[in-house]
Design goal:
Helix content: 40-55%
Oligomer: single chain
Structural class: alpha/beta
Shape: globular
Strand content: 5-15%
Number of strands: 12
Largest sheet: 7 strands, mixed
Number of domains: 2
CATH architecture of the largest domain: 3-Layer(aba) Sandwich
Order of helices and strands: HEHHEHEHEHEHEHEEHHHEEHEEH
Distance between the termini: 44 Å
Strand order of the largest sheet: 2-8-7-6-5-3-4
Bound molecules: pyridoxal-5'-phosphate
């Protein structure tokens, strides 16, 4: 895989230069030829709707998955090697890690674990909705706090709302707005909350952490390992490109992890998913190349919207939020008709479209579609 990714980055210079020029073939920009037999979306459909990694897993991961498949007749064990590798990455112990079927499973589990009829969930609006939706379907109280004028999570207002809460879900960077808070500001909030509301647990979702380039951002995982009131979640779905294999993890104090475990599959995941994550986690060139390719494609599509006069919000992620000056559902339907899938509408964002970052080639083709759609009056 490293070879494929590297070739991709080498091709970036050429592809980047021709972003709005002549079409570039997917293979030229590392459209990573899929492993034999792998199922890819129809060639002409550009999927920019779910913040997925546009590159299919490379040969290192595929080989590991095929080997693991030979153990498919056995129940999974405790995925010890992967847990050890994750723990080492964050400088914590294995007892601080809980694997989940995607980090989504762990977000979902956090609601019955820490929220009840007297202790509400506090979450941003809009934010990644798993916790909010789970609390609503369980009939549990939710305090939603609107994002601020720059579309950042309103940290001071969320802190105000958090007195007596069971759980604060803090998505950093936030999906769907792409905005990030410096880590030390979140730590200060956690410290203040500890005085005022010592029972409240803060869950920081770091799904997009790899894409953040600010020096003010670092992972809260080491602190989560020793602080009973903090949990960090991470996923293999984004930079590692394993969304279809459903694997993520939480980092927390052993007591908090035990509470979370009660309503999960206890970290017993398919052997293939565990093998894929283990093969990917140590591949630093994969991470570097993915971050670089995402940045190049994101910069190019941002410029193309700006050239057309549309506002693009700063993003630390593999998606952008654009004010398309029309109903997002209309923009979405018009793009879909022309073979480009973009994100669904989000509460509180009446004229905004969330667009995931694909390959440079995909973004080049999508830019032509966006231009056509936006040329029509809203
Ligand atoms: C902020 C955030 N958290 C969690 C998830 C869920 O990821 P996973 O695939 O690990 O369930 C997503 C998926 O898009 C996300 O955007």
């Amino acid at each position: 895989m490293a070879l494929t990714r590297r070739r991709f980055v080498e091709a970036l210079g050429v592809a980047g230069a021709s972003f709005l020029g002549s079409p570039v073939r997917a293979e030229q920009v590392g459209g990573s030829p899929a492993a034999p037999g792998s199922v890819q979306p129809a060639l002409d459909l550009i999927k920019l709707d779910q913040n997925e990694n546009p590159h299919s897993p490379g040969s290192t991961v595929s080989k590991a998955v095929m080997e693991a498949l030979t153990q498919g007749n056995r129940y999974p064990k405790n995925a010890g090697d992967l847990v050890t590798a994750i723990a080492k990455l964050h400088g914590v112990a294995g007892e601080n890690i809980l694997l989940g079927s995607g980090s989504g499973e762990l977000l979902k589990a956090s609601v019955p674990a820490f929220v009840d009829s007297r202790r509400a969930l506090v979450a941003g609006l809009p934010t990644f909705e798993t916790c909010t939706n789970t609390a609503r379907s369980l009939g549990l109280p939710v305090r939603e706090v609107a994002v601020d004028a720059s579309l950042r999570l309103d940290l001071p207002a969320m802190e105000d709302a958090a007195g007596g809460a069971g759980l604060v879900f803090f998505c950093n960077p936030n999906n769907p707005t792409g905005t990030t808070w410096p880590t030390k500001e979140i730590e200060a909030m956690i410290d203040r909350l500890a005085q005022r509301s010592p029972e409240t647990v803060v869950m920081v979702d770091e799904a997009y952490a790899h894409f953040v380039e600010s020096k003010d951002y670092w992972s809260l995982a080491p602190r989560a390992a020793r602080d009973r009131r903090l949990i960090v979640t991470r996923t293999f779905s984004k930079v590692f490109g394993l969304a279809g294999l459903r694997i993520g993890y939480a980092v927390g104090h052993p007591d908090t992890i035990a509470a979370l475990k009660l309503t999960t599959t206890s970290g017993l995941l398919p052997v293939t998913s565990v093998a894929a994550a283990l093969a990917a986690i140590g591949d630093e060139s994969l991470i570097r190349d993915q971050v670089q390719s995402n940045r190049a494609a994101r910069t190019a599509i941002t410029k193309s919207f700006q050239n057309l006069g549309f506002k693009v919000f700063p993003s630390d992620t593999n998606f952008i939020l654009v004010d398309v000056q029309r109903k997002p559902e209309d923009f979405r339907a018009a793009c879909r008709e022309r073979g480009v899938m973009v994100g669904r509408p989000f509460p509180g964002l009446p004229s905004h479209a969330r667009i995931s970052i694909g390959t440079l080639d995909e973004m080049q083709r999508a830019a032509t579609v966006f231009k056509t759609v936006l040329a029509k009056t809203a």
